[in-house]
Write a structure and sequence with these properties.
Blueprint (H helix, E strand, L loop, with lengths): L10 E6 L1 H4 L8 H16 L3 E6 L2 H9 L9 H25 L4 E6 L1 H5 L1 H16 L3 E6 L13 H11 L4 E6 L20 E2 L4 H4 L15 H13 L3 E6 L5 H8 L3 E3 L7 H8 L5 E5 L1 H8 L9 E6 L6 E5 L5 E6 L4 H7 L4 H8 L13 E3 L2
Parallel strand pairs: 1-2, 1-5, 2-4, 3-4, 5-7, 6-8, 9-11
Antiparallel strand pairs: 7-8, 9-10, 11-12, 12-13
The protein binds glutamic acid.
């Protein structure tokens, strides 16, 4: 039995995948959705605050436009399908919520809205206000304007970011699979469900593969694990449970079946935001000694670095990678990539000579850095 009761947590984000919302023929699975909305209404009445992240725009729009491959053949198709489907999706949510005396609030966000610190704080404040006013935010990616390089692409990671922005206690991913298995159960019938994950290490990561079971949404287990990494790193629990049953939250509570990823301790809002960023501009590779120093909480000095890659400006987010290729930390660059390349591996006294001045001792200061492993 899972030791964490989602019914009693203060603020919950529920993510609904496309395959749960939309039947293979492209129609809305209204009866199922109503069973979920009934649960949402009960929980709200009991004082729980809820936000929803809903997929389904592309799948719904594809049917109305008669597009092949569920509207995902090209980016233009997906954008057009989302523009048509999002209206239908909002209407379904608004109708069902209103039927239970609740007000729906639509929020469409792009990756940039949550990657840029100011816009992130803005989205966070709006979510907070809506929830405080008793509305139920229904969030989706603004797919019709998000292009390949600036889109989440999957709502699992979006849900984790919304959980973080809303300072939720837990995120529940309702999925067509009931949790994380030791291997993909479709190809490995003997795979077993993992009920609890305390830490997402290499062993856990190896259990996931990328495919979405339904082929309708875009998130497979890899994006769910990435979502779990973002959420738990920000101090938010994340659960993957089956949405294949009516009233899925109650079913989870009764059976305990699912995978719960335990939250780690909160690092502070700014560092959480930094750790959850999905776009990084470059990488700095360090030697084993520097890797150890970083893990002890030190700043990154040029002397312990071996390479810099990517093109970044001062203040951009970069990853710091160990000699084994494992991401150790993420932080804000204190030098642009051009200067960083010149001072990689150099001692402080050499840097002043190379750059004419050594304005900052560290490539990444520990105050602007968050450890990832
Ligand atoms: N935002 C997409 C939609 O509404 C879904 C993304 C996903 O499959 O996770 O259709």
């Amino acid at each position: 039995m899972i030791g964490f009761p989602p019914a009693t947590c203060r603020r919950l984000v529920i993510k609904v995948g496309s395959a749960l919302l939309v039947a293979p023929d492209g129609s809305v699975r209204r009866a199922w959705l109503d069973s979920l909305v009934t649960e949402i209404a009960e929980r709200r009445a009991a004082g729980q605050q809820i936000a929803v992240v809903s997929s389904g725009a592309i799948a719904l729009g594809a049917r109305r436009l008669g597009l092949a491959k569920g509207g995902r053949a090209t980016l233009e198709d997906a954008q057009a399908a989302a523009a048509v489907g999002q209206i239908a999706l909002s209407r379904v949510w608004a109708d069902l919520l209103v039927g239970h005396g609740l007000t729906a609030a639509q929020m469409l966000v792009t990756l940039g809205d949550l990657e840029d610190r100011r816009r992130y704080l803005n989205a966070s404040a709006t979510l907070d206000r809506l929830i405080g006013l008793g509305a139920v935010p229904v969030v989706n990616e603004n797919d019709s304007v998000a292009t390949e390089e600036i889109r989440f692409g999957d709502n699992d990671r979006l849900a984790a970011r919304i959980g973080q922005a809303a300072r939720a206690d837990a995120v529940v991913l309702l999925s067509d699979i009931d949790g994380l298995y030791t291997a993909n159960p479709q190809s490995h019938p003997d795979a077993t469900l993992i009920p609890l994950v305390e830490k997402i290490d290499a062993r856990i990561a190896a259990m996931a593969d990328g495919k979405s079971a339904s082929g309708m949404g875009s998130g497979g287990m890899i994006s769910k694990l990435e979502a779990a990494r973002i959420a738990t790193g920000a101090g938010t629990h994340l659960a993957i449970i089956s949405g294949r049953v009516n009233a899925p939250l109650g079913h989870w509570q009764e059976t305990g079946r699912g995978t719960l990823f335990h939250a780690s301790a909160r690092r502070g809002a700014r560092k959480d935001w930094l750790a959850g960023r999905l776009t990084v501009k470059g990488h700095i590779t360090v030697d084993a000694g520097a890797a150890e120093a970083l893990r002890k909480g030190r700043s990154l000095l040029p002397a312990g670095t071996t390479a810099s890659s990517g093109s970044y400006a001062r203040g951009d987010v970069i990853d710091i990678v160990g000699p084994d290729g494992v991401r150790i930390a993420r932080g804000l660059a204190q030098y642009d990539s051009h200067d960083a390349e010149r001072i990689v591996g150099k001692r402080s006294d050499q840097i002043a000579r190379l750059l004419g001045a050594a304005p900052r001792a560290a490539l990444v200061h520990r105050d602007h850095m968050v450890l990832l492993s």
